[in-house]
UniProtKB/TrEMBL annotation:
<keyword id="KW-0479">Metal-binding</keyword>
<protein>
    <recommendedName>
        <fullName>3'(2'),5-bisphosphonucleoside 3'(2')-phosphohydrolase</fullName>
    </recommendedName>
</protein>
<keyword id="KW-0460">Magnesium</keyword>
<dbReference type="InterPro" id="IPR000760">
    <property type="entry name" value="Inositol_monophosphatase-like"/>
</dbReference>
<dbReference type="InterPro" id="IPR020583">
    <property type="entry name" value="Inositol_monoP_metal-BS"/>
</dbReference>
<dbReference type="Pfam" id="PF00459">
    <property type="entry name" value="Inositol_P"/>
</dbReference>
<dbReference type="InterPro" id="IPR050725">
    <property type="entry name" value="CysQ/Inositol_MonoPase"/>
</dbReference>
């Protein structure tokens, strides 16, 4: 549906295409959830927050279009659709669709992370707003930065072996990472805040400003270098 929209309305201004994509995807997901799971709560980037989710047992955490900017750039493939299910305290399922890449990674068929091919450590980083500390982290590690759009695409780039880690800080919301984290966990990857503490979802305040998703063998080293770099400062 989003690919069709993009194809049919390639002449729209980027801002109009972004809005159309957000609205179309939100309407579709909200209608399907209402049809199939009417009793469940929903937390979406594109809908007003409803505090009843805080007392609910099951909450769908969705980002109908992640990497909205990249969606509006017709030649780009780095945008995604996130759908996660939180139940009784933690994420229990999730899917990250990468429509322009033609695949969907989901927890019901946990992806296998390919063996590493060698070479320097590769870190996925926002192509439009790379956190300054990630650049310093890459310098310290002798790592290569691989810029791309969308939190879902960056997280699934760790899953598919394109990069070794996705480190983010400085701002994000639960919907940006819920489905990507569920998928990454199902693939056996490390997922945490950058101070090593657990990522928690369905909180009253949906801001979740930082995260680390990486191959498990790099987690301790990355966390300790991040700790050194961020000591005494806000990343
Ligand atoms: N500093 C920040 N504050 C709030 N949201 C941020 C952010 N940095 C990234 N994000 C969100 O994380 C997603 C990926 O961003 P990026 O590609 O720059 O890494 C985007 O989601 P949306 O496209 O759904 O808005 C973006 O809004
Ligand atoms: Mg998003």
């Amino acid at each position: 549906m989003l690919l069709e929209l993009r194809h049919e309305h390639a002449d729209l201004e980027p801002a109009a295409l972004k809005t159309a994509g957000d609205l179309r995807s939100q309407a579709h997901l909200a209608a399907e959830l209402e049809r199939h799971r009417p009793a469940d709560a929903v937390l979406s980037e594109e809908a007003a927050d409803d505090a009843t989710r805080l007392g609910a047992e099951r909450v769908w955490i969705i980002d109908p279009l992640d990497g909205t900017r990249e969606f509006s750039e017709i030649s780009r493939e780095d945008w995604a659709v996130h759908v996660a299910l939180w139940e009784s305290g933690d994420l229990v399922a999730g899917a990250v669709a990468r429509p322009a890449m033609g695949d969907t990674l989901a927890t019901d068929r946990p992806p296998a992370v390919p063996d590493r091919v060698g070479g320097p450590l590769r870190l996925a980083v926002s192509r439009t707003r790379p956190p300054a500390f990630v650049t310093r982290l890459a310098d310290r590690l002798g790592a290569e930065l691989v810029p791309m759009g969308s939190a879902g695409v960056k997280a699934t780039a760790v899953v598919d072996g394109t990069v070794d880690a996705y480190v983010h800080a400085g701002g994000q919301f639960e919907w940006d990472s819920a489905a990507p984290v569920a998928v990454a966990r199902s693939a056996g990857l490390h997922t945490s805040r950058i101070d090593g503490s657990p990522l928690r979802y369905n909180r009253a305040d949906p801001r979740l400003p930082d995260l680390l998703i990486c191959r498990p063998e790099y987690a301790d080293h990355l966390l300790s270098v991040i700790d050194e770099l961020t000591k005494g400062e806000t990343p």
